[in-house]
Structure to design on (734 residues):
């Protein structure tokens, strides 16, 4: 339900009392040769004393709205050249001269002829001069003076609007801003209290109230507003135009002098109030400012009119917003010993909701900053504890981030860095700073320094490192060297006897024990290698190898060189002989024709297939009658050349066909039968062929009349073929 309420505002102003003042100021100019003065007397009837200066000027004050029957007396002009004989004449010029203001040309008295209104014109500038009545020449330089109209309270305040309309939500908090009202007064604000406006409510109480002095410039801004955020605008009015109407705003005093700022909008000449620093509702909820508006361009001749500025009070209310939790510190630094057990508490962090609701907060660790999950946190109280063992020598500082989140509003969260330093525990033994391998000269003297030892320790004790060096107990009694601890974390190896023999002992292994002085004491044993070397008389190493002893009866160096040359010559001879043997021509593969051993002859070339007729004439197989006399095989050299027997060709020799088919089947069934990489080609012309037979023996006789005994005389390669055909004839005969 909406209810409309009306209230009346009452304004009153103070009635000033009449005041008259004639402040005197002086200006030096004119003629230095003659010292003359024009005196001006005010309406106080008190004449001014003569000054030895050329000119004196004054400022007169008149009350506005004069209601008397006579002219209002302003003042009197007088020159020291006036002897009272009527020879001088006073004249007046400037604003209103001869109309509003008149002067008695004989006496110099100035009077106002009309009622003056300050709101119409507050200041009049006039010029006075004394001239010789007979010659018309001035006897004194012209003098300028000002007549300022004193204000009286003759104007009532006027609102900038006839009716102000505003709305306010029901159940609004007390102090909620409703509307801004503004009234102005045309009277002079610099003189008395005539222009001072006071606001009050006639109707509408107790539901509404009004700021008695300002009429409620009042703004609101949330506490989360960043610096530079505009809050509201204020405006001062100026009747001038152009640059004379430009206004500058500034905050002169108030509780929020350092929290807010005001700038001028050059287009609208309004003052824009902005946030200067971050606000906090929980610390301060309301700020009161005094904002001043002034003219930056004021002509010096109008400075006497009073201050060209005005001020207004501005109230700014800070609104509460839901803020994320706030940690008690900007960063936390904790420490823990590196030998701490798992679940050891390191410390804790604290955060709370800054809002009035004080919502509960839970804690967590940002795992992006603790990938190995070395630490954990209690979500309720913020206690930090370890979840893994620590090692200071591996990582001295752990930098993690803790998150605090509102339980009721998980979107509101904040983070804080947590730096954890791992404190040192003496858990590492000292060791040599480097691998030590040194030498001792064969002619070294006792107590001679041959090496300085240094040690390092991964630990970092609070009081610094303190190492001690000594020989291992098992080597301390019979050692040829001693250890001298220098008490500065270094030690020296000294010889214990005079002279060393590298042929007896070329290398010594010296065990050295290094200990620290921390708690618990840690120690380690390092080995120093000492080699016995031959040195020159300056102690510089020359050789450290144990050479073989040479007896007088042994070979001389020349003999050894001769033996070495002989061995080299023998080796060269053997190499040359082997090279010559490689160049000798190879023997034939088959040396004797009687050699009947199974041999594999490699010709290292590739056959030409069916078109290759160099090894045998395949045409003979296809046409035995085409065999030429004297044409022999070129791949076999028989012992004796026998005339070829030409048996008559059979019309159709089925025996050869059966033989070929049988052998072909045997080859197909036997994958191991030689040759493995040969292609056996068999051809059969069939019935009606001109060959009449597939006999490869170029015989013109029939199979039954053919004799294959001569094949045995061709060598071992044809004996198998002769046996095969001979066996076949025996089978047919049987």
């Amino acid at each position: 339900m909406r209810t409309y309420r009306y209230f009346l505002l009452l304004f009153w102003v103070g009635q000033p009392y009449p005041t008259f003042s004639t402040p005197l100021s002086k200006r030096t100019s004119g003629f230095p040769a003659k010292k003359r003065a024009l005196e001006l007397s005010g309406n106080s009837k008190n004449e001014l004393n003569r000054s030895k200066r050329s000119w004196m000027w004054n400022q007169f004050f008149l009350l506005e709205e004069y209601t008397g029957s006579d002219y209002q007396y302003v003042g009197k002009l007088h020159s020291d050249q006036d002897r009272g004989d009527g020879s001088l004449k006073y004249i007046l010029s400037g604003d209103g001269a001869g109309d509003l203001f008149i002067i008695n040309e004989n006496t110099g008295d100035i009077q106002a002829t009309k009622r003056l209104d300050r709101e119409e014109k507050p200041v009049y500038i006039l010029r006075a001069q004394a001239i010789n009545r007979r010659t018309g020449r001035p006897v004194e330089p012209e003098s300028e003076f000002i007549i300022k109209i004193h204000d009286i309270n003759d104007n009532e305040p006027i609102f900038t609007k006839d009716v102000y309309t505003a709305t306010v939500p029901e159940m609004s908090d007390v102090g909620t801003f409703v509307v801004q009202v503004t009234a102005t007064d045309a009277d002079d604000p610099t003189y008395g209290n005539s222009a001072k406006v006071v606001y009050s409510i006639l109707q509408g109480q107790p539901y509404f109230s009004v700021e008695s002095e300002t009429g409620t410039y009042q703004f609101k801004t949330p506490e989360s507003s960043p610096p530079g955020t505009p809050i509201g605008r204020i405006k001062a009015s100026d009747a001038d135009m152009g640059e004379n109407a430009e206004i500058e705003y500034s905050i002169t005093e108030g509780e929020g002098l350092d929290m807010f700022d005001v700038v001028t909008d050059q287009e609208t000449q309004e003052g824009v109030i902005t946030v200067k620093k971050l606000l906090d509702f929980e610390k301060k909820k309301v700020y009161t400012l005094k904002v001043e508006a002034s003219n930056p361009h004021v002509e010096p001749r109008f400075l006497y009119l009073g201050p060209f500025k005005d001020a207004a009070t501005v109230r700014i209310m800070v609104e509460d917003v839901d803020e994320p939790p706030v940690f008690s510190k900007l960063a936390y630094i904790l420490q823990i010993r590196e030998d701490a057990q798992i679940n050891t508490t390191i410390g804790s962090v604290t955060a709370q909701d800054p809002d009035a609701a004080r919502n509960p907060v839970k804690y967590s660790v940002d795992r992006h900053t603790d990938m190995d999950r070395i630490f954990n946190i209690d979500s309720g109280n913020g206690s930090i504890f370890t979840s893994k063992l620590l090692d200071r020598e591996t990582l001295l500082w752990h930098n993690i981030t803790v998150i605090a989140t509102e339980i009721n509003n998980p979107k509101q969260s904040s983070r804080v860095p947590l730096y954890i330093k791992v404190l040192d525990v003496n858990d590492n033994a000292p060791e040599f700073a480097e691998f030590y391998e040194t030498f001792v000269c064969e002619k070294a003297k006792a107590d001679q320094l041959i090496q300085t030892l240094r040690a390092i320790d991964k630990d970092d004790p609070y009081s610094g490192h303190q190492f001690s060096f000594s020989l291992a107990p098992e080597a301390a009694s019979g050692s040829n060297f001693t250890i001298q601890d220098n008490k500065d974390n270094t030690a020296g190896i000294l010889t214990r006897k005079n002279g060393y023999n590298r042929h007896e002992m070329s290398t010594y292994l010296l065990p050295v024990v290094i200990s620290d002085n921390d708690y618990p004491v840690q120690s380690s044993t390092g080995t120093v290698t000492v080699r016995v070397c031959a040195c020159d008389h300056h102690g510089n190493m020359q050789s450290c190898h144990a050479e073989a002893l040479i007896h007088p009866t042994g070979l001389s160096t020349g003999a050894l060189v001769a033996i070495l040359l002989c061995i080299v010559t023998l080796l060269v001879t053997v190499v040359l002989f082997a090279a010559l043997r490689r160049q000798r021509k190879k023997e034939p593969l088959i040396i004797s024709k009687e050699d009947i051993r199974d041999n594999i002859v490699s010709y290292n070339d590739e056959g030409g297939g069916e078109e290759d007729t160099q090894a045998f004439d395949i045409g003979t197989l296809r046409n035995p009658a085409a065999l030429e006399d004297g044409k022999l095989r070129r791949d076999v050299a028989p012992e004796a050349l026998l005339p070829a027997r030409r048996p008559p060709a059979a019309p159709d020799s089925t025996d050869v066909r059966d033989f070929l088919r049988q052998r072909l089947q045997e080859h197909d069934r036997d994958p191991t039968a030689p040759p493995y990489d040969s292609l056996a080609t068999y051809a059969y012309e069939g019935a009606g062929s001109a060959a009449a037979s597939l006999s490869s023996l170029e015989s013109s006789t029939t199979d039954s009349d053919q004799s294959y005994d001569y094949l045995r005389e061709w060598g071992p390669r044809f004996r198998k073929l002769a046996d095969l055909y001979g066996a076949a004839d025996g089978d047919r005969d049987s």
